[in-house]
Structure formats: structure tokens, C-alpha cells
Amino acid sequence: MQWEQLFIEAEQLRFLLKQPSNDLVLLDCRFSLQDTEWGQREHQQAHIADAHYVHLDHHLSGPITAQSGRHPLPSEEAFRQWANQLELTPDSQIVCYDQGCLAHAARAWWLLHLHGFHRVRLLNGGWNRWQQTSETAPTPSGALTSISIDLPIYSLKQVMESQAGDINLVDAREAKRFAGEEEPIDPIAGHIPNASNSVWLDCLDESGLFRPPNWHNAHWQHKISRSGNIINYCGSGVTALVNILSQLLAGVGSVGVYAGGWSEFIKSSYFKELD
């Protein structure tokens, strides 16, 4: 997959916003797990003009249950209702951004694709990058074209059954969480058996921008030891999406996601059997 099919740069977005026929829909997805109302407050203080605020818990997740992870997927009905409130159509040009980490914006990007909205891009560097760029130096850019992205969603049962096959199970969380040395969010530390670790933050450079395509090619050639078929997970189906963006750029076989993540796995009978 090509860079421009996934991302838009701040300078390009500034150009598009200046066009008389501009019909862009901007989604501000800033969020913090430590303070879940932080993003809303930041949006109220400042945001890209006309952007709508999108809350991870309220708009991009469904209700938590006794069996679910921390961010279960919203129902199709609930997501469609929200999209209708924003007057989104399959032809809408949509740009998602967060504070710069990409994880929360990628959750919106992914769900939009799942529900048939395919003219959507991620703002590279997010709000932080937007603030660093000049209004007087936009970069010409064309309209956002429609693209098709196929990202299979795996259930926990499918994840466990796939371990006997030719699948790479990749955990996106920080190394200490993967190793079970610390767990600041979920009640139990550790990782799903037979998973390998590839920390999602490694996909960003020192300035908070997504690394160039050649880095992602080399990274996954080193990480993937089998066929290239990958199931990604994290704590609750958010940061794993950053690894998925990296894999799409690298073009590494079939890429899917186990959205329930570690927070769902530890509630399951599979975990109880291991315990």
C-alpha cells in the first residue's frame, strides 16, 4: 500500500482546506487512557477549524461486558447512527487526527473503513504536527481517493486455533507489559501464548512522525519468521492499529486484528486454563 493511501501531511491538509470546493470532514480523536476527558477538554480549547470531536469510549467503542475487553467494538447500528449524525456518506472525504501518536485516530480510520467509508486518511503527526506547520506554506494536494482495505477481525477462539497454523501473533504493547514485568492498565500482566512483541511506538520517529516506508519494510522482514500472515493485538484494540499501518506500508501478506486484546483474553476460559 502506498503512503498517500494512508496518510496526509499537515501542509497538504492546509492546501485542501483553502480550496473553495472543500468538503472535508475532520475528526479530532485526541484521547488519554489516564484521563479519558482530556481529549474533549483539549478540543474545546483549540482544534483544526470545523473538526468534530470523537471520543474513544463513547463513539469508537461499545459497552463493556463481563466477557469483553476494555474497548469492545461498537455495534453496526450504533456506529451508523453516529456517522449519520455527522452526515457522513461513502463519498465523504475524511481526515482523522489525534495528538500525534496515531493510535486513537487509527481506531476511527479502521472503523470507518469497516463500515464503508473509504475516502479517509490519517494526519501524520496529528495535532502536534499541525501546530508546527505554517499557514502560509501549504503543499498542493489532490482530493482523497477511495481505497479498499481488507483487515480481517479475529475472535479469541480463532486466535487460539490459529496457533497451530502458519500465523504470526504480534503484541503491540510496551516490552515490560508484554514480559509481564508491569501492567499499569489491566489487572493481570503477561501476554497471549506464542505471541511475539513489536512495540507500536517504534513505528514513530523522534519527532512523532510515522517512519518512512523503507523502515517498515526492513522492520517486518526482521520480525516475521513464517508466511507473513499476521494477527495483531494489544491491550484493547487501539495501539495494535499502528502496527497494522506499518504492515500495510510494508506489504507483508495477510494482516488482521484481534480487537479484544489482552484485556479480553484474561477474562476468558483460555486464560483460566493456563492459570
Describe the structure.
- Strand 2 (24-28), helix 2 and strand 3 form a beta-alpha-beta unit.
- The protein is globular and about 60 Å long.
- The protein has helices at residues 10-17, 38-45, 76-85, 103-114, 126-132, 156-162, 175-178, 213-223, 240-250, 261-265, 269-274; strands at residues 7-8, 24-28, 52-53, 93-97, 120-123, 168-171, 196-197, 230-233, 255-257.
- Helix content is 32%, strand content 11%.
Per-chain topology:
Blueprint: E1 7-8, H1 10-17, E2 24-28, H2 38-45, E3 52-53, H3 76-85, E4 93-97, H4 103-114, E5 120-123, H5 126-132, H6 156-162, E6 168-171, H7 175-178, E7 196-197, H8 213-223, E8 230-233, H9 240-250, E9 255-257, H10 261-265, H11 269-274
Helix pairs in contact: 4-9, 8-9
Features:
275 residues, Oxidized Rhodanese, domain 1, 2 domains, 5-stranded parallel β-sheet, 9 strands
